[in-house]
Structures are given as C-alpha cells and as structure tokens.
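explain this:

___
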Amino acid sequence: MNNIQIAALDKTLAPALTHKINHKTKPFGALGRLEELALQIGLIQNTLTPQLSKPTMLVFAGDHGITASGVSPYPQAVTAQMVLNFLGDGAAINVFAEQNGFALRVIDAGVNHVFASHPDLIDAKVAMGTANFLLQPAMTQTQCEQAFSCGASLARKEIAAGCNVLGFGEMGIGNTSSASCLMSVLSGLPIDECVGRGTGLDDAGLATKTAILKQAILQHSLKAQEAMRVLATYGGFEIAMMVGAMLAAAEQKALLLIDGFIATAALLAAVKLQPNIVDYCVFAHCSGEAGHRKLLDYLGVKPLLDLGMRLGEGTGAALVYPLVQAAVNFINDMASFESAGVSEKIL
C-alpha cells in the first residue's frame, strides 16, 4: 500500500538560485524568509524561474468516535453542518480560498451523515465516522489503507490537471483529540504537552480530555516506529486521507501548504513514513492550539505566520499563499543590480 517514495531535493541548482536571489536590487538577505521560500520552490521545481499553477485546497472531513467520551464541547453533528456550510460558500475557508485564487475541494472522508449529491463534494466516505479509540482502534488497518490510498489518488488527480500547489485543511469534531494522540505517540512527547482546548473546552473539560487521551495511549501501548498502526489506532479518516494526499503530492514534487495543528499532526505521520517530505512543505502558521508550537519545534520547522488562529479548514494555508506568490514573483521579476544599472555593495 505505502509504496510512495519521496526523493530528497536535488540541490544542484542551489548555487545558481542563491546567486540570482543575492544579486537582486536589495541588500543581502533583506527579504528574509521570502528568500528562503524562493530557494525552496526553485529547488522543488528544479528551475531558476519557478511558477505557481492552479493552487488547490483539499479540505477533508470526518467524524470521530472519541467524541462519545466527552472530549469536545460541540456535538458530532457540527461536522456535517460545517461541510454543508463549505458547500454553501459560507465558511472562512471559502472566503480565503476565493480571495487568493484557490480551487476548493471538499472531501467527505468519513462524516456520520448521508449527504445529497453536490457538484462540489467529493464522496470518498470510508465509513460513518471512526470507532471510539478509547475502546478499540479508530479504524481497521484496511480502512486506514483505503483512506490513505484515496487521499493519494485525489492529490495525483489534481496534479495531473496542472496543479503544483496543494493546501491541506480539515473538519472533524473531535479531531484535536486524534491529533494530540498521534503527536504524543509519534513524537514521544507526553500527552499533557500535546492536548489543547480544541473548540473551546474550559479547565475542567481540558482536564477530562487529557485524562481520557492518557488512558487511550496507555491502553494501546504503541511505538512511534509503527506509524501506520498508530494512524489506524488514533487517526480520523480525514487525517489518514490527508497523510496519503500529502505523500503523493510530495512524490510528484508539488509544493505543500501545511495548515494548523491537525494538518501538522497528519504531516508528522507522513514524516515517519517518508522523512524527505518536509523539504516540500511550507508551514503556514503557528496555531493557537496548545500543542502546535511544540509539534513544529519537534519537526524543526518555522511557520511563516503567528496570528493566534485555531480554526482549521485550511484557513492558515490559504492566508499564507500571497507570501508564496511574493517569493516567486521577486525571484522572477525583480531587477538584478546588473540589469538595473545599480551599484553593488563595495565592502
């Protein structure tokens, strides 16, 4: 099933890209992180003139059996209600995707609801939500593999149609619990450092959530090296599908825009399977969810934005896209010292 192979970036072109960046009409390093972005995108595309094509946001939705144990202040029905909101162009991701030129794909990976056919909804439902991982694994290995493979196929389809920038978002009541367990087991960090308030738990609710997740981790007693088994045990269908999509996109040398806590937890699982995937990722922002900064630190990556956001849906990934465009535009369109007749630094 997991036969995806992601090559390390070929850095042969790095000296030429660096020379091009350094000789634009600016002081050395003056564009900061945009210069790092330009270099990264040039290396991914193996060109001195990178281009961005058909940016697409994949928003995966799924329900979680763990909600039956009281880990979220919102009822499970909100997942389906928000999917309908996406389809009605009423959510934040609709606004930000339209603002920044993204095609938006809404994917039912496993929502506990039967949706009417809709031209903007991709029906990839594995089941009507996962099982309660406090009692048993969230999904069977077969279900996990189905979700993974479906995600990979969806990403490949977008890339075959000309997309080379994919953003990743999600919707699923209870999925911060899933992501917290994935983070803890796969990183080795204590669950207390991985759990946050999700959609707005008070102190008592947070304590209850933490105790439940700690019990679930002790019960299953898995090792970080068993990444697919960990994903099947604690993941959601939307998370497993996202893992497959991320890996397939990186294999095809697309640029991956990683959103917040849930998307980064999915990326962590992908890293355990194919470590080179990090080279293809732009980490959009640091979420207000408690564990996200520690997860980014564990991965050794730097987010571009820190706006205190914690909405999910791919909103951070959509908002960061103008910075990605700026990086590509300056390396392609900004004058060099030579072409502009501007003197370079003499000391």
Notes: The chain has a mean pLDDT of 96.
